[in-house]
Design a protein that fits this description.
By secondary structure, the chain is mostly helical. It contains 10 helices and no strands. Helix 2 (24-34) runs parallel beside helix 4, helix 4 (60-72) packs parallel to helix 6 and helix 6 (95-108) packs antiparallel against helix 7. The radius of gyration is 18 Å and the shape is elongated.
């Protein structure tokens, strides 16, 4: 089913480009759709390259789509690289940007990276939400229960809203 979606997205993008000028939203949608399949990652990467080589300025949503696509395709290094490029391009990542990165960290168990990203959020005035906190908490493995408790303490001290999902995740780790 996923293969059909990304193939259809590419077909739609190609046919649209013949009759209308593509914009960042068109590219972002296609990149995100191609990210649902590991086989289509190269297509998503090509679209990302085409977007950058065109006269179209990528938007924050474009970067978020690329991070999501890379992470969903198992290309976690590429996902974090896109986040780095986003910052270098003087765009400020938002909560959704970080959530895309947290999702990748969660999938790959990259708890140190998740904590580093969580620490960077205030520097760009992005506020963690329930998705952020739950994804970061899910990165921890049972042998990291002390780190999980420290994280939970910092979330509470920082006045982040701890909810049942975050607390349940913490308990499952401990």
């Amino acid at each position: 089913e996923d293969a059909g979606k990304w193939r259809f997205a590419l077909q739609l993008l190609r046919s649209t480009s013949k009759v209308a000028k593509l914009d960042a939203i068109s590219y972002s949608s296609a990149i995100c759709t191609c990210g649902t399949s590991a086989k289509a990652w190269q297509m998503a990467a090509n679209m990302w390259t085409n977007l950058h080589s065109s006269a179209i300025d990528p938007t924050l949503a474009s970067y978020n789509a690329a991070m999501h696509a890379a992470g969903a395709s198992g290309q976690w290094q590429s996902s974090f690289a896109v986040l780095g490029v986003l910052v270098k391009c003087m765009l400020e990542p938002n909560t959704q940007s970080f959530n895309a990165a947290f999702g990748v960290a969660e999938s790959w168990g990259l708890w140190r990276m998740a904590l580093q990203l969580l620490g960077r959020m205030p520097t760009v005035r992005a506020l963690p939400d329930q998705v952020s906190c739950s994804a970061v908490a899910s990165c921890f493995k049972p042998h990291r229960w002390r780190s999980m408790l420290c994280l939970l303490g910092s979330l509470t001290v920082s006045c982040f809203m701890t909810n049942v999902i975050i607390l349940s995740t913490a308990v499952s780790v401990c």
